[in-house]
Amino acid sequence: KKVIITSRNPIFSIASLSSQYSIPMNNISRQAKRISVTLFSAQSLASAGFITAATLNSIVGAKLGGSASWAGVPSAVYLLGGALAAYGWGYLMDIWGRRGGLVAGLFIGAVGAGLTFQAIAMHSLPIFLVGMALMGIANAAVTLGRFAAAEVHPPQSRGRAISNVVLGGAVGAILGPLLVGPMGELAKSQGFDELSGGYVASGVLFLFACLTVYGGLRPDPRDLGREIAQLFPETAKLSGVTRSIGQLLRQPAVKIAMIAMVLGQMVMVMVMVITAQHMRSHQHSLNAVSLVISSHTFGMFGFSVLSGRLADRWGRGMVIIIGSTTLLLSCLAATISPQVLPLAVSLFLLGLGWNFCFVGGSTLLADQLSPSERAPTQGFNDLFVGLASASASFSSGLIYDQSGYTIMALAGAAFSLAPLLATSIWLRGLNRSPMPALPRS
Fold first, then answer.
1. What residues have CB less than 8 Å from 244, skipping those under 6 apart?
2. Is the omega angle on the peptide bond into residue 439 within 30 degrees of 0, that is, cis?
3. What pLDDT digit, counting tens, does each position of 64-116 carry?
4. At residue 248, does pLDDT exceed 70?
5. DSSP summary character for residue 359
């Protein structure tokens, strides 16, 4: 029986369908709402913890390593840890459920934050990098949470579902950098290095997020997602068949989705991770650094509602093109001046461009997968996102040390052209062939 959705309210759409298929309407709508609220809350807390640490990582790396060439190494290790863990998290979340995977990941993040605090007190770069790796592993689990929101909503609402969870990062964008200064003063007043205070805040935030997921993510999105998938049998790709990663990678839409997320993340990381060190080299205060990073992270998350709705209304590909173009402009703007205002504007655009690529790419990938393909494929995608961003973080420190901030930003601009061109060519090909009604691409 073919299902046609006319409502743009995802909860209403699920509720209407549940009455047709004898699935309890109140249970479906209540469960979907609870899952969305829980994921948003956990994302808000966790992102605040990650962003608090990200504000300081390059400064701590340069201090413990003894030169600016080490500035990008902590973020590189953080991202590499997340990349190597992402594929494993995909499988574990199929076995343990999304709830079990997220709880485990957040607890690992709290342990990692504790290690980074201890490492700064001991002036030990190796211990600090171990803590960074554990926090990266935690971030890989948290990032996969966006797909948990998508799987409990109908196809026409997946963009909004993902963006509503990513919007939780806006809370982190505001709260995280603002904690750096006060926590630094508190740590200093207790006889610790002022740079260590932010990592204490990160650990506490991870623990709160862990408790939020443990208590609120019921039922498990994995199980509810399978029920929702039964309502849309015509949108499941090769229903009843689980395709291999190799088979999926031969699908043009899967390739475009991965290119958008991988290269969008690479460009964002390349510029973002070194900006704090760039500002410190121009004698800016920690408060000024926090302001610029806050502007960037607000761009990353503050407009998630817009990007998700545009992905559902205009199509996934058009949102990716907008994001790639914004990334290109932001990298060029970053070369204008080392002053606070120009950097704040350029890094805001950098975050906004990343958001459009990330939400558009995530939604496009979710469209292509059956329930049995979701977690492993999404983990595989995030593996490459992490590897690309880890290499960008590591290379950004080297490029900055050898050639300066301007050359590094121009390299980011060059990379941003790839998703722009690839998606434009793909959309042109789609316009020459009949377009499916569900889902929009």
1. none
2. yes
3. 988 877 877 888 788 888 888 988 888 888 888 889 999 999 999 999 999 99
4. yes
5. H
Dmax over CA atoms of the chain, in Å, equals 68
- Amino acid making up residue 49: G
pLDDT digits over 300-349, tens only?
Answer: 877 877 888 898 888 899 999 999 999 999 999 998 888 889 999 999 99
Give me the amino acid identity at 177.
P
Half-sphere exposure (CA, 13 Å, Cβ side) for 385? 28
- Cα angle for residues 204, 290, 118 (degrees, 5° grid): 40
Task: Tell me the pLDDT band of 240, cut-offs 50, 70 and 90.
Answer: low
Amino acid identity, residue 14? I
Q: Is residue 350 within 8 Å of residue 264, measured between CB atoms?
A: no
Give the SS3 label for residue 322.
helix
Nearest-angstrom CA–CA distance, 271 and 293? 11
Q: How far apart are CA 296 and CA 330, in angstroms?
A: 11
Specify whether the CB–CB gap between 435 and 441 falls below 8 A: yes
